[in-house]
Amino acid sequence: MRCARTITVAVALVAALASNALAGAQRYTNPRFAELTAMHRTLGILPFHVTIDPNRLPKNMTAEMVQNEQKAEGLDFQKQLYARFLTRSEDHSYSVTFQDVHLTNALLAKAGINYDNMAEHTMTEIAQVLGVDAIVSGSIERSQPMSTGAAIATGVLLGGLYMGKTHRVDISMSVHNGADSALLWSYVHTDNGGLTNSSEAMAKSLLKKVAGQFPYKGNGRMVEFASH
Q: Whole-model pTM above 0.90?
């Protein structure tokens, strides 16, 4: 009996360690961060690039539906991330402002830059269009879609919440220097779950872990948000 209990505890411990490793995060900060960002005042936040595992799509989900879902989530996550920065500004002081995402998207559209062709432009080009010092961008890799239509096809909706199978979401966020497109900072996070994988929930989870580590530590004033 004691041996069985020991094995059970050992298995549970291994499972816990594996789970922690999977949910872990990786962070990078440019060694020259302080030097390169000394004159930074405003950051722009881009729509995130979303990809969904093509091997786990519902049979009735077309390529056009997938593209629309990815684009919609990328734009929504951009707004949610901005909103989370706003709400967490009361707890963390930063030395920069964040451009309002509605202004960001309007300026991008005016310059002919959109979700589909954004990868064709350097961070320096985008920063010049936006008039910002650095760019916050990132990607979301889903193991399966999370739209209402997809949820109906792959799981069950209960009270508006998805009750399908647990799935994995890998989120990466980066900050690039507007002057030369150099990578200044990056953070990679893995989320697992069904109910917690909405854009709002993911942004909240990500910022909860990132906010205190975001490299633009303040000079005593609260972070501001530039709307014009």
A: no
